[in-house]
Amino acid sequence: MRRPRPVKTKKSVLKRFKITAGGKVLRSRAGRRHLMQGKNPKRRRRLRSPAEVHPTDAARVLQNLPFSH
Known about the structure:
This protein is an alpha+beta fold. It has a single domain (11-63), classed as Factor Xa Inhibitor. The chain contains three helices and three strands, in the order H-E-E-H-E-H. The chain starts with 10 loop residues before the first helix and ends in a 6-residue tail after the last helix.
């Protein structure tokens, strides 16, 4: 008889997303890796703040983080 496989956290997902106390999934914004001088200050400030993941994608993220919610 085969033993059930333990549920594991997907480490790549753990590093990319954060789960808030209310259950929202946050991500960092794209476009912040390089070429920051060419972007205006308002855009750079907006890139600093995290964005909420869309609910359809949030469900997929939470599947890979079994112990976070």
